[in-house]
Amino acid sequence: VQLQASGGGLVQAGGSLRLSCSASGNILSINSMGWHRQVPGKERDLVALISDGGAARYADSVKGRFTISRDNAKNTVYLQMNSLKPDDTAVYYCNADYRAYASGQISDFGAWGQGTLVTVSS
Fold it and tell me: By three-state DSSP, how is residue 94 classified?
């Protein structure tokens, strides 16, 4: 399974970006999908998570500014980021918890995308 993320870039503080991440490969179903971010020297932190039913949760630092959504037909998750701040600068990674056939049985797996850089200038 591959996750392909896109949409990162350079934006001024107060601006907006929309990240996308599509999953492809041996997938029966996708449970949760999410976005995390990481800056050099720090741990990767959860930004937002969305269940297969559409329930979302957010890190406190992005509540009210970021919106996560998904298109189940396209196995794609989005992150709309508004009112961006310099502190939002990071590499953003998408992830998915999915179910697939492997070795003759259905099992649960996790996968990560390659990361997309978001830079917010002051």
Answer: strand
Residues 6+ apart with CB under 8 A from 100: 1, 25, 26, 27, 28, 106, 107, 109
Average pLDDT over residues 48-70: 97
How many CB atoms are closer than 10 A to CB 16?
11
Q: Does the CA dihedral 92-68-73-19 come out positive or negative?
A: negative
Beta partners for 57? 49
pLDDT in tens, 28-40: 999 999 999 999 9
Distance between CA atoms of residues 107 and 119, nearest Å: 37
Structure tokens at 4: 């392909």
Q: Are 49 and 57 in contact (CB under 8 A)?
A: yes
